[in-house]
Structure formats: C-alpha cells, structure tokens
Amino acid sequence: MTSEAQSDNWDYVATIDLGSNSFHMLIAIEGEEGGIRIVDRVREMVRLGAGIQGDRTLSEESQQRALKCLGRFRERLSVIPPYRIRAVGTNTLRVARNSGEFLARAEEVLGHPISIISGREEARLVYLGAAFGLAVSKRKRLVIDIGGGSTEIIAGQGYRPLQLDSLYIGCVSMTRRFFEDGKITERRINSAAQFVRRELETIVSKYRQLGWDEVVGASGTIRAIDKLSRDLGIKKDWISHAGIEAIRNWMTKSQASKNLSLISEQRRPVFVGGFMILSELFREFGITRIEVSDGALREGVAYDLIDRLHDEDARVSAVRELAGFFGPDPNQAGRVGKLAELLLNQVRQSWELQEDIDHKLIFWAAQLHEIGIGISYAHHHLHGAYIIENSDLDGFSRQVQRMLALIVGNSRQKLRFNDIEWLPPKNALKIKRLTVILRLAITFFRGRSDVVPSKTTLEVRGNSLTLIMDSQWSKSHPLTVFDMQTERDYLAAAGFNLVLEYR
After folding, report:
1. Rounded to the nearest 5 degrees, what angle is found at the Cα of 87, between the Cα atoms of 81 and 88?
2. Which residues, in sequence order, are CB contacts of 394 under 8 Å at separation 6+?
3. Model pLDDT for residues 271-325, shown as the tens digit of each residue
4. Segment 163-211, tens digit of pLDDT
5. CA distances from 285 to 114, 139, 202, 277, 296 (A)
6. Please, what are the domains in the chain?
7. Using an 8 Å Cβ cutoff, are 184 and 252 in contact?
8. Cβ–Cβ contacts within 10 Å for residue 125, how many?
9. Contact at 8 Å (CB) between 293 and 134?
10. pTM of the full predicted structure?
11. C-alpha to C-alpha distance for 41 and 68, rounded to whole angstroms
C-alpha cells in the first residue's frame, strides 16, 4: 500500500472476529472522543467449530473454508494501515490442538497477525461493544453473547464490567451434543436444558447478588431468536417469556432442524442449540425481557484498538493491577525498566525489534519480574512466569501473555526455552533477545542502587554482544562486575556470546 493511500485512510480501523460459527469483519471510521462510525460489515458462516474432530483437531475441510473466507477479507483490508487492523480468535481456536498450525496458515492468507483471546477477555470485549452500542446510562446491565463454542455473561455498569464469565457452551457445541442428526424431540430438549442448567449452576448466585436493571443480548443467535419471536406473532420489541415459549412449541412441532423454515438456511443447523442456552438463561437468572444490541465482540475490539492507538491500553492497567496485588518493589521495577528501555533502543535496529510491542513487552516484564517473590525468593522467576501465564489479564491475547511469561521465567539463573516451540522462529528469536536485555538490566541493579554508569552501551551483531561500561565505575563496583561475568556464562550456555569491555 502506498503512503498516499495510508494517509487517506488514517482514521479507518478494521477488526476481524474468527468465531466458532461465523467470521465477521467490521470496518469503521474513528470518530471524536473514541467513538466509531461503521461503514461496512462482512459476515460469513464458516462453522469452524463444527470442524473439531474427535481428537480435538480442526479438520482440513473446516480449515479450507476458513482460509478462503480470510482470503476474501484480505482484499477489503488492503487500503487500511496495518497498525489499525486487529484480528482475534475465540473458543474454537482456544481448544483446537492444532490451532497453532492453522494460525500460521491463516495469518499468511489474511496478511495480518491473529490473536487468540481468553474467554474472560472475550467477555470484556463483548461488554465493551454492547455498552458503546447502547445509550449512555448508569443503569446496571447484564450482557449475554451466545457464540458458536462459548457463551459470555457479563454484569456491568456504564462502560465498566463488574463480573465476567465465559462458559464452554455455544450454539455449535450444544447442537453437536444433543441435535447433531437434526432431530428435535421433547426428550432431547429436556436433556439439553438440564445440561445448560448444570453449566449455569456455579455462576447464577453471584449475578443475582450483583443485580441488574436491564438485560442485553449481543449475538447472531439472540438476534435470530428476536426475529423469530416476532415472526411467530409475539409483537414485542424485545425477547420475552412468551416469545421463548412460542419458539419452544414451534420447534417441537417442527421435529427436525431442516423444517425450521422461518430460520435462515445458514443459521438453521445450529439454531436449536443456541436457543436452549438462552431459554435456560431466562429460567435460571429470572430474566423477564432481553433487549438486543448490534454491538458485540468485533465492535468491542474496535473500541479497544482505538484506546490502544491513543495510549489508553487496557494491558497497562492489567500489569499495574497484577504488580499491585503481589507487591514487588516498584523502585526496583522502575530502575530495571528504565535501563532495559535504554539498552533496547541501542540494539533495536540491529536486532530488528519493533518500537511498539517490543518496548511494551520489556517494560511489562520489568514491572512483573519480581512478582513471584511473594511466594518464595527461590525460583521466584518461575513463580512469576506461572502467575503471568495463568492470570486473567485484560487486553492480553493468549500469545502475548505467554510471551511475557517466557521473558519473566527466564529473567535469572539458567535460561530454559523448552516451551518456545509454539512460536514462529522469528518471534522465538525476538523473545530470547528481549530476555537477554532484561537480564542485563536486572544484573546491573542487583544491588538495588540507583547509580548506573552513564556510559553503558550495548552493541550487538547476531548473537554476539559487547557491553561497554565505564572503567572507573567498574573498579568501584566489583560485585556488579562479578555478577555480569556470571551472567556471561549463563548467556553462553544459551548461545549468546557476551563480551565485557571497560573504557
């Protein structure tokens, strides 16, 4: 894309939602005060979740459907600057054993990286999309999104979620479990209802305690139920108990999915499973009516992307909150972070590190590298890595969270990169290099002093590093020099050659 084309489209953003049932693409113009004006929506029923086989791998047929769809999406993205595009994958890509292999193919076809987001992050973004799609209000809201492989339930107020859950039940998974051959019977409906009630059992009480003033539905399944309710003669502008009962009776009389003539042909194969989830949500949560919002995950991703573009990144708050909870020394984190950033700037071009995400990764790692001390000083870097990888961190994709855990887990003692094979080779090398930078910064400040030589310079060529330090400073800090010599041995065992020079 030419620079002229980029400048013409500087205010566009695009988001792609690789759902378990459908792939969605949204293109919008960034408005004032963080708002968006949608100019195009594209949706294709890919049914990726239906391609999950018995061994939890994606079938080649389902992958081909997905890749062809992404190839078509790519054409529409060609005029938008890459940094204003974000693609996310949801439940099917979270559970598929070969999702890494599929992602490599998908990213090549789409021409952009794809982030797999956690269920909790999906819920947060769904709420963000739904909240922005509704009138500004201080009323408490319960937001429900029934996807292909998971259902997100969120209670919040205004634009702030208060409680988030992601359940592993969706319209595709429920249909496959109870209605795979398309037959609809009272017995199967009762079995499906009982299954959903068991899934909801552990979360109902906390939402009832929070309470809500209105319930909002934000998914294709819920929009289809809303439309069908009216088609069956329930003339309300919301989904009601009467609508749910009318649909249940109509489905039972239809006897098979193929006979659900009022449902679109694409939605028909998975409609019954999605309906059973919403029906039991009505029952267990005591819902009386559900309003329908056009805003959902893709809109939430767009708003979140705009926040990142304007330095209001949710990940910054997530790192700050995690550090605050475990209580590492903020002064030490600041010292290490400042020097790590200085060293990164010195080697960024030679090591082909990106100014945006790589700076953030090393800054976050510096903030979190000692969070494991609260568990035990011994192996605190490994404790910290476990905490990072298994925490619910707002804004983070699963890949970036695991990268951050890898850096922290290798920030001291022996370098262990056994769990890095899931990364593409170029990204794996980047993580190793960022880890080396962080380790050097930590070694400098092992004595927790604010004094660091002003002439410290790092030069690199491939895996060969030269660290230049002030000779007078080095003579007065023999223990730091000794620590750096020990670090040299650790790096050599990992394939990095560190030369120490004093000038």
Report:
1. 160
2. 121, 124, 314, 315, 317, 318
3. 999 999 999 999 999 999 999 888 889 999 998 998 888 877 888 888 989 998 8
4. 999 999 999 999 999 998 999 999 999 999 999 999 999 999 999 999 9
5. 35, 18, 12, 12, 21
6. 3-117 (3.30.420.40), 134-293 (3.30.420.150), 313-451 (1.10.3210.10)
7. yes
8. 31
9. yes
10. 0.81
11. 17
Task: At 408, list the tokens.
Answer: 């922290």
Closest to 194 (Cα-Cα) out of 181, 177, 180: 177
Q: What is the rounded CA–CA span in Å between residue 459 and residue 465?
A: 6
* DSSP reduced 3-state for 198: helix
Task: State the average pLDDT over residues 88-106.
Answer: 92
- Tens digits of per-residue pLDDT, 3-50? 444 445 568 999 999 998 899 999 999 876 667 888 999 999 898 988
Q: Taking the C-alpha atoms of 102, 296, 223 and 280 in order, what is their torsion angle to the nearest 10 degrees?
A: 90
> What's the rounded Cα separation, in Å, for the pair 169 and 179?
14
Residue type, 315: R
Sign of CA dihedral 115, 120, 125, 130: positive
Task: Give the tokens for residue 203.
Answer: 């979360």
Q: Per DSSP, which regions of 257-394 are E strands?
A: 289-292
CB-based contact 141:187 (threshold 8 Å): no
